[in-house]
Specification:
Elements lengths: L5 H17 L5 H7 L3 H4 L10 H11 L5 E2 L5 E3 L1 H8 L2 H21 L2
Antiparallel strand pairs: 1-2
Length: about 110
């Protein structure tokens, strides 16, 4: 079985570390916003067949609102940041839990 790419493992570990630091503090939404780039750089192609569908589900959730545009149609906020703006703190916790689940699955591939 093909393992996930080491890039996905390393970048997910960084993201998880950041999210865990804010999980219980009520600042998870702010932390998600500051770490939003991870959801754009960790692409599904970096995951094993066993993990790809879970990561794609995370991406679908984190991009569900689409980009915010101005009156001229120019993007003023990307899909990830725009979606995070619309999430409640509880929804942010559910999202973080899904990220943790994917990370734990990928981590097991490397043990």
């Amino acid at each position: 079985m093909k393992k996930s790419n080491i890039f996905a493992y390393i970048e997910l570990s960084k993201l998880v570390e950041e999210l865990r630091s804010a999980y219980d503090s009520g600042r998870l939404k702010d932390k998600l916003k500051s770490q939003a780039a991870y959801f754009n750089i960790i692409e599904p192609r970096y995951f094993s067949d066993a993990s790809i569908s879970e990561w794609e589900a995370v991406l679908d959730l984190i991009r569900q609102k689409g980009a915010r545009t101005d009156e001229q149609g120019k993007v003023v906020l990307n899909a990830v940041s725009n979606t995070i703006d619309h999430l409640s703190e509880k929804e942010c916790m559910v999202l973080a839990d899904k990220v943790y689940f994917v990370f734990d699955k990928v981590k097991k591939e490397f043990q």
